[in-house]
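Practice record 12: protein with iron/sulfur cluster.
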Amino acid sequence: MRVAFVWINWGGPLGMSQGVSILASELADAGHAVTVIHHHESLPGPQTPAECAAAIAAVEPDVALFSFGSNQAAVARSVVDLLKVRCPRLPTLAGGVHCTLTPEEPLGWGSLDYVFVGEADGRMDGLVTRLARGDDIAGEPNVACRRQGFVKKSRVESLPDVTRQARPFWEGIDYRDLCIRMRGVVDVVAGRGCPYRCTYCHNAGLIELYRADLGVPMSKIGFTRTRDPHALLEECRHYRAICGEHLKMFSWGDDMAVMSKDFLRTWAEIYPREFPDLPFALNATLNFLDEEVVALLGRAGCNLVKFGLESGSARLRKFLRRPDYKEEVVTEALARLRRHGINTRAYVIVGVPTETEAEMLSTFRLGAALRIDSVRPSILFPYPGTPIYDYCQERDLIDHEVLGAVHNYYSRTVLRGFDARMHLLLGRIMDTYPMIMNAELGGEVGAAFAPLAQAVLHTSEERWLAGERERVLREQERLNVRFRDTRAEFYAVPFPERPDASCLMRARSRPLANVDDAPNRAIDAT
Ligand code: B12
Ligand code: SF4
């Protein structure tokens, strides 16, 4: 069968969906002719929903498959609506995290035939073959559709065994080009799942879905899974062969990559033997970073541990149900990582309901005080299917018009309910947070940036919009240039298209992988 597999990533950061890649290779290995269409503004492919629909139609597919997240649902809808007009008889099936957590939403468009709920490994050949034959797949496990105005959803099957996960679709996705565009970073996945249920994360909804449908307690779902390290190593070899000298770093997409010490022990043996100079980065919760885990990561050549700090306020960390919300857990884990020369990146969230100005500022001040190598803010976006979404919905905090139009989580807040002062600062913060952090660093850097931080916090909106913003940003740029060639440490945003990616410019024992702005100072944009 001919299959068009569309990955809608419009407005999001560039990167390939592992889900699309492995499902596409499953289909190809079963004998289907698969075309992956990557819809992203920075790529040469389709630039509008109409062009995307035309690109799909040009494949003359027997089935069209879609994958997208909540922020891309509006774009996906336009594409599917237009496709339905062009090819009314073409069967369509969509999957991914948005479809899993809120199948009613895409099914409500009226143009999409089916939605897949949950993980689809091992299922693609059967589904596509039946769809292409014109069968009705309502009633198949994990499948949802609309019948007589109601959403009909079958129960999900048990979670797949990731040790049998298919390979990436190397022959159908230009990974070399992506690697170059992503400044040398290649995404891989070493496992799936996370034992926690932070209120803003998809995992809370996923666990609940599988627990309810399978009728077993959470501990029996088998949610947290690790791949065979040798299979991952084989994948790394393949990427090296494809990307050659462009490959600078592997970034693991796992939500929580340090759950299995057995995996890490093997990885620390096999990876550095073959890739002694190729760093990798992963996500972890700080409470898992005991001495043995950090030592294994160090031995394996891990360059960067990324973690959700989320807030400078322990109250908000607890509100968000972080497993590592306690101050001492944060400081001890960071000290351990530093001792082993591993760089750190904190993801932080601003615009959490009930957050005060002081709490928001404390987040950046804490990041600077702890000298975290990279601090990456996002503005809270309540994803449907998460506990924080229900919390905001119950309190009527969501501006649904804005919610549907925001393609990522660093553009603007989609929440109402903050006072005017918080709204004003939330509107400024993504442009200016490095100045607030730099003002905290003390010394010459702190003194130079302090007036800019003051201007950010105390300029009226009228003056800000009448030119003060540009002046402050120009001055920041001037200071960045001034400090760049000194030994001073300061935060800067190296890539204009990624305002959320700030790095502490400093000499490191393990330089971060993919951009050098000065000798011995590297920054990355993964
Ligand atoms: C790596 C990653 C990225 C990469 C790749 C994106 C991707 N979607 O794969 C990049 C950097 C591009 C990225 C960008 C963004 N991401 Co991101 N990302 C991840 C992360 C950490 C891992 C994804 C992964 O590899 N999973 C493993 C693979 C095997 O699973 P999977 O892709 O879900 O696929 C399985 C099923 O979903 C299903 N499936 C998927 N597609 C399809 C299609 C069909 C037809 C079928 C039948 C089944 C099916 O089967 C697959 C195999 O079992 C996830 C968290 C997570 N654990 O999922 C967040 C996550 C997906 N990202 C998230 C967000 C918010 C974003 C951004 C909006 C970030 C931003 N800066 O604003 C953008 C939007 C991108 C987009 N178009 O979705 C949220 C999405 C929330 C939501 N409700 O949409 C997540 C869940 C993080 C979180 N905890 O909130 N991200
Ligand atoms: S620790 Fe991270 S991946 Fe796990 S539930 Fe919390 S936010 Fe999600």
